[in-house]
Amino acid sequence: MGKDYYNILGISKDADEDQIKKAYRKLALKYHPDKNSAPDAEKKFHDISEAYEVLSDKNKRAVFD
């Protein structure tokens, strides 16, 4: 099974665009490699960015859902 982008961003499947953007920004600031030196921060940041890319695009989100 693939990644659960909703779980990665900590949002529900009925989240609107604003909720998706807010969740992404909060997590991106927390895990950005320039701000977080934890060994897994870069991987988490990549996953967060990927989740946002898919869920913020209506067409990609429809395919994912």
TrEMBL record:
CDD domains: DnaJ. One of its GO terms (molecular function) is protein-folding chaperone binding. SMART domains: DnaJ. The keyword Chaperone applies. InterPro entries: DnaJ_domain, DnaJ_domain_CS, Hsp70_co-chaperone_J-domain, J_dom_sf. The keyword Chaperone applies. Residues 4-65 form the J domain. One of its GO terms (biological process) is ERAD pathway. This is DNAj domain protein. It comes from Linnemannia gamsii.
